[in-house]
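EI: anyone free to look at a 128-residue chain?
SC: sure, send it
EI:
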Amino acid sequence: MRGFVINTVVTAIAFAAMAYLLKPNIQYQGDIPALLLLAVIAGVVNGLIKPIIKLLSLPIRLATLGLFSFVINAAMLLLIAWLADKVNIDFTIHGFPPDFSLDAVIWAVIGSIVLSIISTIIGFFVPD
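SC: here you go
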């Protein structure tokens, strides 16, 4: 239970930092409980859906030497934004949701890279 709480707080901090660093294109406007709920949504998506998608895309990932993982991470971030919109959390990626465009996908790729870097840096300082 302690690990779940710590990981949720770390993910919430990482989402807040990502939204701050990529401000006009990735936006979060809300309070701390909504940010924690966003982190729980991200944990559920990354824990349940992402492994299935990674398994199904194994041939493509092997053919691209793992570069397709960037697309998978971006798709998961867009899915998190869509689910957050469904529970009335204001988290958007270049207007998505509701406006889906190529720019939203590009910013989702950039956001997923920044999010993983921030999570890794925070993970060095927080014991698991």
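EI: The first strand starts at residue 26 and ends at 29.
SC: 👍
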